[in-house]
Structures are given as C-alpha cells and as structure tokens.
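Example 3.2
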Amino acid sequence: MPVVESRCVVPVTPELAFAVSQTTGEARLRWDPFIRHQHFLDGATRPAKGVRTLTVQRFGFRMESEYVSFAPPTNVGFAMTTGPWFFARMGGGWRFKPVEGDPGSTAATWRYNFTCRPSWLAPIAERVGAVVLQRDIDRRIRGYARGCQDPFVLAAATATLPGATPAD
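Structure, written as tokens:
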C-alpha cells in the first residue's frame, strides 16, 4: 500500500492550526487548491468522528469519505467510502504538534495511503499514483501554510475555537 506524506511548520498554535485545517466554505477554498467543492453529508454541520463528507476534486473526481478520528487539536483521520473507480481504498490522517521551543508554531504532518484497482494494473498504477498524489499533497500543504497566515482564513478558523464568541 503506497504512502505519501508532506510536512510543514506554520506560525500558529496547534489549536488554530487544527481549526484552519477544518475550515469550510470560502475560507477553505482560499487555501485548499485540491478541492473544487466540499460539504458535509447526512445533515452534519461540523466535523466529528463518523461524519461523512463529499469532496469534488479540482479535476472533477468525487469522493465520499468518513471521519474515522477527530481529536482536536492533535489529529484527524478519514477513510474513503466511495470514490473514483481507480481507488480500491484510500485514507489519510493529519497530525499537529507544537514545535519544540516555539509554542506559537505547529508542525503539521499529512499522510495518505491508498490501493488501486484493478489488481492486475495496481503495481504500475500505484507507482504513478504515488507520484501524482505526492505532488498534490505537497501543493495542498503549501496552500494550508499560506492559509495559516491569511487573515480571512484565520478569522474563520478562530470563530470555531472553543470559547469563541460570534462577531457582532
């Protein structure tokens, strides 16, 4: 099973870094170059373990996924429930931890794994897929790092933190 991973350090606390990663709507679109559209399913209004989402990737590929873990501010994980025909399985996890000696910064690590189908093509498809997905995840985490410095995104993320009060 191929695994791809990207890392970055962002100049915000783990709580805010995690919140940025979970932004939705316009704030998400400002930083996330991977998605064209994303929304919660089944009436959910916020992320949590067991919540399902629909994501439409920028080239139009659609994937439904489910949060298999949700532990702010340290980690979040998902598993694909339905998706593009060429993925037999796909999952990922994002981890956030304070940078040692710099509590105002966070090390973010995003890791994805997948298997391709059909099985006879998987050895080649997975090598190609790892290269393509690595490029996409590197691009995505760079966008996330920019989002962690974007006042609009930070305001949206801050509004979701525990104890935040609605803007007047």
